[in-house]
Design goal:
It is a single chain. The chain is an alpha+beta fold. The chain has two domains: 135 residues, PurM-like, N-terminal domain (60s Ribosomal Protein L30, Chain: A, 2-Layer Sandwich), CATH 3.30.1330.10; 161 residues, Phosphoribosyl-aminoimidazole Synthetase, Chain A, domain 2 (Alpha-Beta Complex), CATH 3.90.650.10. It has ten helices and 13 strands. The chain has a seven-stranded mixed β-sheet, with helices on both faces. It starts with a helix and ends in a 16-residue tail after the last strand.
Amino acid sequence: MALSEFDIIARYFTGKGPRRDDVVLGVGDDAALLAVPASRQLVVAVDTLVAGRHFPGHTGAFDIGWKALAVNLSDLAAMGATPAWATLSLTMPGVDQAWLQAFANGFFSLADPYCVALVGGDTTRGPLSVTVQLQGHVEAGTTLRRDAAAPGQALFVSGTLGDAACALQQLQGGGPVDTFALQRLNRPEPRVVLGESLAGVAAAAIDISDGLLADLGHILDASGCGATLWPERLPASATLQALPGEQRQAYQFYGGDDYELCFSVAPGKRAVLDALLPQQATPVTEIGVIEAQPGLRCRYADGRVVTPLRHGFDHFRAGDDD
């Protein structure tokens, strides 16, 4: 017997995942009722993943479910926010119960550790796409924002850069795919704990989804300043360290899909940052400095100063296609 839209919701999504006391009314009504904690500001993010655009068509359902939530968790991490509630809109060409179960397993496998409650959504028939809206909250006055960079602040990045882009190119080339890099592409680890720790400590922040240079450029544009990067200091996994220097740098500069955090810290907060970093599971690397001079420059150890292209992935620019 074929499942209806409401059967799908009831079987795979209703009552699944974490329960929260601040969910007054969740799945099953026209809208959810949520209680935002006093003195906290609501933070809302939404992302859509489209088959063939954001993930290859043969990507497993578990990985799609995981990544659909991960990219939103990463956005909240870049604001220093604590995630709380999610809504899910799922469009698919037909009802495949094995696919639905795997998708739900992937979604809730990531929702559980961050106590994200699914509180509503929609299902419909059409080309495969997934939209997640994630809500969270942050203490007023501590939010990380793109427009808060200022000259003299140090620039940092979490984790390693370029792994996901490396895996994607290997997939598109049809050859062997590095296992570690593929894991980074399909199941990115959003830096939620680090982002929460940086609230009130870091100044500006952004998550790296479209490439380091493009996303750092958004901070510089919003803040009206420039920066110098030290390319040799960009953190690289063992997978990328095995590649030729120019190829490795291209992945790190332009690749995207890393979902690491890039953030700046004022000199007066540096001691606070240094004290909290040893408590973090995610490594953090200093990669440059914010400057008054507009533009983005790369300063190499041999003294060369190069002005790189800043563009990253853009859905509406010709040639940009996953």
